[in-house]
Specification:
This protein has helices at 2-33, 37-45, 51-58, 62-75, 106-117, and strands at residues 78-80, 88-90. It is mainly alpha-helical. It has a single domain, classed as Winged helix-like DNA-binding domain superfamily/Winged helix DNA-binding domain (Arc Repressor Mutant, subunit A). A hairpin with a 7-residue loop joins β1 and β2. The radius of gyration is 19 Å and the shape is elongated. The relative contact order is 0.13.
């Protein structure tokens, strides 16, 4: 039994360092791929939202969102959403790797709130 406990402790230590090393690499890849606030915003909103909805929030064309999704799935920082085949979701949260998430423009956020209140 003591041997199992020692093995578990060693595995926990290996996991801790592996995660640390991996997150450093993930952060580098994210910083390179998401080199503008607009890309960061699109990436962070990529959690099952539609490309038109993300595009409206980020003030870009929906094609731009889809083009980014294609690039990001190739490098492994995004994946096809399991419930929406034509949508993507981020693999990592920017905050969890220490990258600041851009603030959504106030006017867009207010429009979304009004849209929800009116049931559109």
């Amino acid at each position: 039994m003591d041997n199992n406990k020692e093995i578990k402790n060693i595995l926990k230590e290996i996991l801790k360092w592996t995660k640390f090393q991996g997150m450093q690499k993930v952060k580098q890849v994210l910083e390179t791929a998401l080199d503008t606030d607009t890309k960061k915003l699109i990436y962070e909103l990529s959690n099952g939202n539609s490309s038109p909805k993300i595009a409206k929030t980020a003030s870009v064309d929906p094609t731009t969102v889809r083009d980014h999704w294609k690039d990001w799935t190739i490098i492994g920082i995004a994946e096809i959403h399991p419930n929406y085949r034509k949508r993507c979701r981020k693999v990592f949260s920017l905050e969890e790797v220490g990258i600041e998430v851009p603030v959504i423009k106030e006017a867009t956020a207010n429009e979304d709130e009004e849209e929800n209140e009116h049931g559109r």
